[in-house]
Amino acid sequence: MSTAPQTTPDRDTALVTTKAQLREARAGMDGTVAAVFTMGALHEGHLALVARAREIADHVILTDFVNPLQFGPGEDFDAYPRVLAQDLALVDGLVDLVFAPSVQEMYPVLPPTVSVTAGRAGTILEGAARPGHFDGVVTVVTKLLQLTRPDLTVFGRKDAQQVAIIQRLVADLDLPVRIVPVEIQREPSGLARSSRNVYLTDRGREQALALSRTLAAAQDAAPSNAGLRGALAAAVDRAEIEWAYALALDPSTLADIGADHRGEVLVALAGRVEGTRLLDAAVVVVTAP
């Protein structure tokens, strides 16, 4: 199982908080630029994104902004952790620039008069549980892409639906940026790293391994289409956790694959353990019935 890579500081990190400061700093960057979009409260998963960005670009911009548009009813925007000083300490010397704007700076009018929609893909799976969430995500990502003007952006595969939607955003709106998915970072046990893991007891962490075991079973079943879908159905039937879904999806459309599907398949998992919603995902290839 992969773990977050070790990184060594090798550059000066600047903090900017306004769009004007960001534009000025960005104009001084020669070569390729990669962007890492975050809502702060950084952890090792974010550092893995930073490390990948450093591998593929000359400069790295990290954004640290809690986006109100992606919080739905019953989700406490005000309670989301904001620890900018801690975040800056974690990435000091690892990125060229941190953009940490206020809500007023990002949205002079809230809600914005014009926004972006994720369409049907934003209303299913995680979007069904969080109405409007992905519309908020694609709106802020579009704004941040315009502001940072990166050549590449990196996103973690654990939020597989988000990656798929952003890839469609870039393709459908002809945005001049390449999306680079980064493999899921895992704890030694195999559990996908997540800020939500802190809510789990030792027993809950053990129970949560049902997700990574299910992924392993799905990967072992490929390249058989029927075997893959059977492995997911068997996991749900075992009910080791409170499953929300365990699906084999077309990566482009997020629709369930049929028996005749061949090619890449997104295996998307979500379930609750001790009241905490956990996600996991993988891309496998199906070449046989």
- Mean pLDDT over the full residue set: 93
Strand content: 15-25%
> How many helical elements?
9
- The radius of gyration is 19 Å
Q: Which class best fits the helix and strand makeup?
A: alpha/beta
Shape: globular
Order of helices and strands: EHEHEHEHHHEHEHHEEE
- End-to-end separation: 29 Å
Helix content: 25-40%
Give a count of the beta strands, DSSP E runs of length 2 or more: 9
Largest sheet: 6 strands, parallel
Low-confidence stretches: 1-6
Report strand order across the widest sheet: 1-4-3-2-5-6
What this model shows, in words?
The protein has 289 residues and is an alpha/beta fold. It is 35% helix and 20% strand. It contains nine helices and nine strands. Strands 1-4-3-2-5-6 form a six-stranded parallel beta sheet, sandwiched between helices. It has a three-stranded antiparallel beta sheet with strand order 7-8-9, covered by helices on one side. α6 packs across α7 and α8 (202-221) runs antiparallel to α9 (225-238). Residues 1-6 have low confidence and may be disordered.
Write the layout of secondary structure elements.
Elements: E1 14-16, H1 19-27, E2 33-38, H2 44-56, E3 59-64, H3 84-91, E4 97-99, H4 103-106, H5 126-129, H6 133-148, E5 152-156, H7 160-172, E6 178-182, H8 202-221, H9 225-238, E7 242-249, E8 263-273, E9 276-286
Parallel strand pairs: 1-4, 2-3, 2-5, 3-4, 5-6
Antiparallel strand pairs: 7-8, 8-9
Observed structural traits:
289 residues, alpha/beta, 6-stranded parallel sheet, 3-stranded antiparallel sheet
Summarize the structure.
35% of the residues lie in helices and 20% in strands. With 289 residues, it is α/β, with parallel strands linked by helices.
